[in-house]
């Protein structure tokens, strides 16, 4: 994970996660409405930038004839993007199954934890090169 990905993780992902908690726990109707508007936009942006970063990373590995899934950093990145895809689908199912809101919150927090591990693995990978 390069420094721009770390900024995306901490700025967009961190604030997006905060907004998710505000949606869930705030008693202020106006704050909730603003958070409901911005939360999906921020995290969709994070997904977009991470997908671009993954494309760049895979392209770099392919052009240097290195195996794609050799590092734990690559594996956590792929798992994280797959989980973000599932996370994106869940809100469309909330109406029929309100319990999925809990799954969405737990999964979202777990994804952010995974991406923190991913960042540490990326730093380790960068320092070893």
UniProtKB/TrEMBL annotation:
InterPro entries: DUF4079. The keyword Disulfide bond does not apply. PANTHER family: EXPRESSED PROTEIN (PTHR36738:SF1). This is Cytochrome b561 domain-containing protein. It comes from the Eukaryota. Coiled coil: none annotated. One of its GO terms (cellular component) is membrane. The keyword Membrane applies. Keywords: Membrane, Transmembrane, Transmembrane helix.
């Amino acid at each position: 994970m390069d420094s721009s990905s770390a900024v995306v993780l901490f700025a967009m992902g961190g604030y997006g996660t905060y907004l998710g908690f505000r949606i869930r726990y705030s008693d202020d109707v106006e704050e909730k409405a603003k958070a409901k508007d911005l939360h999906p936009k921020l995290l969709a942006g994070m997904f977009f930038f991470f997908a671009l970063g993954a494309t760049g990373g895979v392209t770099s590995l392919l052009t240097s004839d290195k195996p794609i899934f050799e590092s734990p950093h690559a594996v956590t990145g792929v798992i994280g993007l797959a989980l973000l895809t599932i996370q994106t689908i869940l809100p469309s199912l909330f109406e029929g199954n309100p319990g999925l809101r809990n799954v969405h919150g737990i999964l979202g927090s777990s994804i952010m934890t995974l991406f923190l591990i991913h960042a540490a693995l990326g730093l380790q990978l960068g320092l070893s090169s």
